[in-house]
């Protein structure tokens, strides 16, 4: 029996991905206040050797610098006097820290040192227990250096990651309401290389760049407590909740209002945003002119919970967006935007409604089953042209779709994944004997996606984008002359029989040219 137990432990350590030994240390209570911050009831120290100390040393993008300082514009700059108004509460040792109270100009910064990244014991858990933090020049909460359980090696990247032993952890205490209002820090150079004439930076190394109100440089977990009743409200000048590698959301009620992406994970072709539970409400308010609801530079995997994600109303962005693929395996999803991004698959049935005209975001849309019973209601606040819904209520059968009291019709594209008909084993449809595939028009050549490659396209133009891929766009703007309805969810307008009956099958379902039934 002992030998069997040893084998099982070894097997778990070998295949647990981010898993490693983690020791829970003592609990420290930090009470925030503009007048007096306390640590376990005692006034906070300014001694940098302490586990918790305060200082006036916030990292921010400073005004008055020249072009060799960083990539920020006038909109990103702050005066030194603005920064000096902020108090930074530094956490420098592993452990669990309970945050409560209010800080109207400040930041909580976790930094266990440069060696922490490879130390499995360098783990910090922040428990949000009715805390209110506002920072006007940088993220309100930031993890700098803690243990990184993940791997940024693109060749080893996978959508299946285990983050339970990550060094950055956040718990939303049951029955509490927590408010995080934050800004961001534009890219500041550590070093740079100038052009021959010395007038521009042609290459640089990053010293600082933190895009979100709540930010982690390492893999981060966000969870609720046992009941999952704690609330985290994030109000972000730029992005809302970010991690540079992986982000896993396990529970709690998280409400994000952001000027740009609501959630972003940043490592290209590697990061995984995983949602396993909780309630997530995201709305990009459009104040930066762009923004997805959820944006992963790697994969987005939704396994449970309730996710409502709304992109910027005026840009070609998506409610849910991922460079490497979106997998919906469970939970309930309502995502709206002006782009249909690649939904690769998953076990949860979903439906995509691509509208013929832009929607103003002031209506309620209802899906009714064959008996006329409403099985789903969706009320996006932002304007949109593409609506994605997923959930256990979408069982195979016949449905009708309504905007208020107006019945809608659409062209049904069949069972879909990533915006195209799903063929068994990836095969092409068979052609009648003796026939050959039609020749691609000259003006379309090079704009498809042969052999898994991305299509080349002139800057800012919208070629045919198979698999729901996203066209590039400058600063979230539409190409000149384009409007959200022309995008039609990232796909060309499909021809086909228009019907007021919507057939839902198991898997992915795409309905195009959605509009009032005649």
Rg, alpha carbons: 24 Å
Number of strands: 39
Q: Regions with pLDDT < 50 over 5+ consecutive residues?
A: 1-17, 417-432, 435-494
Number of helices: 3
Characterize the largest beta sheet: strand count, sense, and whether it forms a barrel. Answer: 28 strands, mixed
What's the pLDDT, averaged over the residues? Answer: 85
Helix fraction, binned, reads: under 10%
Features:
41% strand, 28-stranded mixed sheet, single chain, nine-stranded mixed sheet, 518 residues, globular, disordered N terminus, mainly beta
List the helices and strands and how they pair.
Blueprint: H1 2-15, E1 27-32, E2 38-39, E3 42-43, E4 52-55, H2 80-84, E5 87-91, E6 95-103, E7 106-111, E8 124-134, E9 141-145, E10 168-172, E11 177-182, E12 185-194, E13 201-210, E14 212-216, E15 220-224, E16 231-236, E17 239-243, E18 247-249, E19 253-258, E20 263-265, E21 272-275, E22 279-284, E23 294-296, E24 299-302, E25 306-310, E26 320-322, E27 325-328, E28 332-337, E29 343-345, E30 350-359, E31 365-369, E32 374-378, E33 384-390, E34 397-403, E35 406-417, E36 420-421, H3 484-487, E37 498-499, E38 502-504, E39 508-516
Parallel strand pairs: 1-6, 5-7, 6-8, 7-9, 8-10, 8-11, 9-14, 10-15, 11-16, 14-17, 15-18, 16-19, 17-20, 18-21, 19-22, 20-23, 21-24, 22-25, 23-26, 24-27, 25-28, 27-29, 30-39
Antiparallel strand pairs: 1-2, 2-3, 4-5, 12-13, 28-33, 30-33, 31-32, 31-34, 34-35, 34-38, 35-36, 35-37, 35-39
């Amino acid at each position: 029996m002992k030998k069997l137990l040893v084998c099982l432990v070894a097997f778990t350590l070998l295949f647990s991905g981010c898993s490693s030994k983690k020791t829970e240390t003592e609990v420290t209570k930090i009470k925030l206040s503009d007048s007096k911050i306390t640590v376990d009831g005692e006034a906070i120290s300014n001694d940098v050797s302490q586990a918790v100390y305060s200082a006036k040393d916030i990292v921010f993008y400073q005004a008055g610098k020249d072009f060799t300082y960083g990539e920020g514009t006038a909109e990103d700059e702050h005066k030194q006097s603005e920064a000096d108004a902020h108090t930074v509460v530094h956490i420098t040792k592993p452990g669990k820290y309970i945050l409560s109270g209010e800080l109207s100009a400040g930041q909580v910064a976790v930094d266990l040192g440069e060696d922490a990244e490879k130390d499995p014991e360098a783990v910090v858990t922040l428990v949000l227990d009715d805390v209110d933090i506002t920072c006007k020049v940088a993220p309100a909460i930031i993890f700098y250096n803690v243990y990184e359980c993940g791997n940024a090696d693109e060749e080893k990247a996978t959508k299946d990651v285990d983050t339970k032993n990550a060094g950055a952890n956040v718990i939303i205490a049951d029955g509490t309401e927590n408010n995080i209002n934050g800004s961001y820090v534009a890219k500041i150079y550590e070093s740079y290389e100038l052009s021959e004439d010395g007038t521009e930076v042609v290459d640089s190394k990053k010293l600082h760049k933190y895009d979100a109100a709540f930010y982690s440089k390492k893999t981060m977990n966000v969870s609720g407590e046992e009941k999952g009743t704690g609330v985290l409200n994030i109000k972000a000048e730029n992005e809302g909740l970010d991690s540079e590698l992986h982000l896993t959301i396990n529970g709690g009620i998280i409400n994000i209002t952001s000027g740009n992406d609501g959630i972003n994970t940043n490592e290209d072709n590697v990061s995984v945003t995983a949602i396993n539970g909780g309630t997530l409400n995201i709305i990009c308010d459009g104040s930066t002119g762009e923004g997805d609801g959820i944006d992963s530079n790697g994969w987005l995997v939704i396994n449970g919970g309730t996710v409502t994600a709304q992109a910027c109303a005026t840009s070609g962005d998506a409610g849910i967006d991922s460079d490497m693929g979106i997998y919906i395996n469970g939970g309930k999803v309502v995502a709206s935007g002006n782009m249909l991004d690649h939904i690769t698959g998953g076990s949860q049935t979903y439906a995509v409604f691509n509208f013929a005209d832009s929607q103003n975001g002031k209506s309620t849309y209802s899906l009714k089953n064959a008996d006329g019973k409403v099985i789903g209601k969706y009320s996006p606040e932002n304007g949109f042209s593409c609506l994605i819904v997923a959930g256990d209520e979408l069982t195979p059968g016949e449905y009708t779709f309504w905007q208020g009291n107006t019945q809608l019709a659409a062209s049904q594209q069949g069972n879909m994944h990533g915006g195209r008909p799903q063929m068994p084993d990836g095969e092409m449809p068979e052609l009648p004997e003796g026939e050959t595939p039609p020749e691609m028009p000259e003006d379309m050549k090079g704009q498809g996606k042969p052999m898994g490659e991305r299509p080349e396209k002139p800057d800012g133009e919208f070629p045919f984008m198979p698999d729901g891929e996203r066209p590039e766009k400058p600063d979230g703007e539409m190409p000149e002359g384009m409007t959200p309805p022309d995008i039609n969810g990232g796909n060309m307008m499909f021809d086909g029989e228009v019907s007021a009956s919507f057939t839902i099958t198991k898997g992915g379902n795409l309905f195009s040219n959605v509009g009032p039934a005649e």
